[in-house]
């Protein structure tokens, strides 16, 4: 099996070079060759596909080799694999499987198959290609599911006019009879602040007798809370509480608490949080406590924050997301001493180190100019074999920039660029400041290195930073 080194970089720390993987080099490994047939019982089509994680690897040879080896491909198995690939955001591979299934199995596609492929085309190739795909679909397959998939594509891209157009066509075709598409449009109107259209659509549902499912009610409650429509929120909440067909849960009161909080009605928000606690059931208790931590921090209520934290700890093991919520809440309340104590507790019990958790404190240190504390934590973590993320270095570089230590800011920003960014967006204010500093000092060698690290050899880096 052949592997390819995608990126390697020097990983020197604040105190000097350290060895993380093979004398200071970090590698991101992908399979770049189609897996060959294995003699073990684990040689399944699913395993071959799941192993080919590099998005540049085509699924077509894997599928063709499987068939050429005398094996059969079951449509239901492929659909299950496609569903898993979508779950893990391997959209390109999922689309390839969908296309292969359409062309190679000689089976008439179902509207559900077409709807899935339409969604994948939009995610991989964009709206324009999704529209072309839709326009080539036979009229007999343009069912509620397929048109609903296109509506979802438009809604995900916040293409309001096109979403409204396909919604109208669904009305004209007589296939707009379920709350699902209404919910998509209600969500879109809410996100885009189209309150009048939101209310009009609710009225249409009532006139047509479209049942308001639980999800619809929550969309409405969230929409009222988002725009601080306290009157509308309270009216709906009262209706929910009095309707015997509706079972209240903790989340409804959390939404209301958030609405009151945004409106500055802190006492009413606190009242809703108390009601929320009364409806928490054991199955979702941990997640509910995490939400309550954030909201009590938003209220600035440290006593209630610690009370919920102690209840949470009584449940037993707390995972990283729980510690993340608590530490971020304490940082928000400017209780860095408390955050440090919880961080020490996390380090003593956790089995899965995640730098995103200490990054919360590192960022707080840097914002307050406590750069030595940030440096000390990063250095200790490196000594224990932990590798800082792009966010770690980015926070520190920004701290140096704000403290006017530009030479250090440049060096640390280079580390941020070389680190595994995992979707992290570097602080472009700091990046711009670093570029300006390099130009002012006339250090063309470092400036060129900076440009190379940003993979912009043919562009003035300052143009990129200022965009």
TrEMBL record:
A GO molecular-function annotation: mRNA binding
Q: Give the location in the cell.
A: Mitochondrion
Note the Pfam families from the entry. Answer: PPR, PPR_3
Can the keyword Repressor be found in this entry's annotation? no
Chief place where the protein resides: mitochondrion
Ranges: PPR repeats: 178-212, 354-388
Q: Fetch the SUPFAM superfamilies from UniProt.
A: TPR-like
> According to its record, what are the GO cellular component terms?
mitochondrion
Q: Which UniProt keywords apply?
A: Mitochondrion, Repeat, Transit peptide
InterPro entries in the record: PPR_rpt, TPR-like_helical_dom_sf
Instruction: State the similarity comment.
Output: Belongs to the PPR family. P subfamily.
Name of the protein this chain belongs to: Pentacotripeptide-repeat region of PRORP domain-containing protein
This protein's species is: Camellia sinensis (Tea plant)
